[in-house]
Specification:
The complex is a heterodimer of chains A (about 110) and B (about 110). With about 110 residues, chain A is mostly beta strands. Chain A has no helices and 11 strands. In chain A, a hairpin with a 6-residue loop joins β5 and β6. In chain B, a hairpin with a 6-residue loop joins β4 and β5. Chain B is an all-beta fold and about 110 residues long. In chain B, the strands form 2 sheets. In chain B, strands 2, 4, 5, 9, 10 and 11 form a 6-stranded mixed beta sheet that branches. Chain B has a 5-stranded antiparallel beta sheet with strand order 1-3-8-7-6, with no helix packed on it. Chain B is globular. Chain B has no helices and 11 strands. The chains are: A mainly beta (about 110), B mainly beta (about 110). Chains A and B meet through β5 and β10 of A and β5 and β9 of B.
Amino acid sequence: NAGVTQTPKFQVLKTGQSMTLQCAQDMNHNSMYWYRQDPGMGLRLIYYSASEGTTDKGEVPNGYNVSRLNKREFSLRLESAAPSQTSVYFCASSALMGGDGYTFGSGTRLTVV
Amino acid sequence: QKEVEQDPGPLSVPEGAIVSLNCTYSNSAFQYFMWYRQYSRKGPELLMYTYSSGNKEDGRFTAQVDKSSKYISLFIRDSQPSDSATYLCAVHSGSARQLTFGSGTQLTVLP
């Protein structure tokens, strides 16, 4: 039972480059989330998808886009990476929009130079 | 004011100590209360889940919710070095679309 799988685990980008972070869950969860975690800032919600076919902005959506490809997969795209986007990114999923808690992936460590 | 406040620590205790981690929240609509544990360089994992007020015990861990004072606690008995991690509280109203997290408390248990 893999749970939530994120790829890649590590990435270094140059300023202005683009990339897509992939997330897939095998628990048949309806809701999926993307967070970033920075020292002293806690978890900050970037975007979420309450159910397949819907996406909504979270607390810090600027500079990011998302795609809910199907029920299993939710990707996060950085169109033009900036050093301020250096962070650890976590994907999470939930059956009941968080009311049952989240299952998190292991994270992607992104450095933008 | 943040909806959930959590003392960031860091907190350092000797092995065997009783640890108390706490959060306060402002919205009385919250009714689901959780604690996550996050080891260094790992994703958070759900540790304790509580609905409404009261206590819930799981081994050395006890989660306590006092809705009258909007206060939630996690107690760790006989703490071990393997308990060293960041602990995040999280709350949910039941009708929200996402969890609201505290900022996390970094705990170190010294052998």
